Fold this sequence. Notes:
CATH superfamily of the largest domain: Fumarylacetoacetase-like, C-terminal domain
Distance between the termini: 50 Å
Oligomer: single chain
Number of strands: 20
Radius of gyration: 18 Å
Order of helices and strands: EEEEEEHEEEEEHEEHEEEEHEEE
Amino acid sequence: xxxxxxxxxxxxxxxxxxxxxxxxxxxxxxxxxxxxxxxxxxxxxxxxxxxxxxxxxxxxxxxxxxxxxxxxxxxxxxxxxxxxxxxxxxxxxxxxxxxxxxxxxxxxxxxxxxxxxxxxxxxxxxxxxxxxxxxxxxxxxxxxxxxxxxxxxxxxxxxxxxxxxxxxxxxxxxxxxxxxxxxxxxxxxxxxxxxxxxxxxxxxxxxxxxxxxxxxxxxxxxxxxxxxxxxxxxxxxxxxxxxxxxxxxxxxxx
Length: 254
C-alpha cells in the first residue's frame, strides 16, 4: 500500500493514489493534486542522514573513500511535501539536489542484528535533500547550516509499505532538472546498506517507530537556481516534484 498526507480545507487527511493527477480519501472523495497541499507523508521522530554513501558521489565531490559513514541529524523544520518549494539562500554559489531513498522505522529496537534489521522497517519514501554546498566547512564540520535550512528537504509523495518493495537494494534513482535527466544511479551502489545502517545506529541508541534514515545520493548533482523544477524518482517508490525559489528573509515587526 502507498499513502500520502494532504491538507484540504483546513483538515489533514490520509490519501491513496486514485490516478496520475488525483488522490482518494478514506471516505471515497476524489481530490485533484492541484486542489490539495501535499504534506510530508509522515512526521519523522528522529531523522538520520548519511552523507557520502555512494562512491561515485564521493569522487565527484573530491572526497576519499570513507571507512565509516558520515551521519548527521535533521530538524523538523527542514521538511516540505510533494509539489512544495525550497528556498535557495541568497549569496550561495552552489546549491544542489540529492535524490535519496528514505527508510522509515516501524518497530523499536536496540542492538539490532543485521539479520533482523529489515524486520524493523515500516516502509520507504523519496527524499530530495538539498545542500547549500558553499556552507559546508569540511568533512568534520559539514552540515548544520548547509543541511538544516527551512524546507530544504522534500519528502513524498507516498509512504510505501516495506512489504510492497521486494528489494530496496536494487532500485533505480533518477533526478531531472527542468525535464533534463541529470542524476542516475541505483540503491545497489550504497557503500553502507540498510541493514548495516540500522544495526550501527541501534548499537548506541534505541530506534523507534517513525524514525527516518536518508540513505545518501549517487553521483550527478548540478547547481540549481530559483525557478528550476527538480523531480526525483525512485523505482517502485514514487515521483517527487519540487520547485526552487529565492529565499525571502523575514523581518521582525516593531
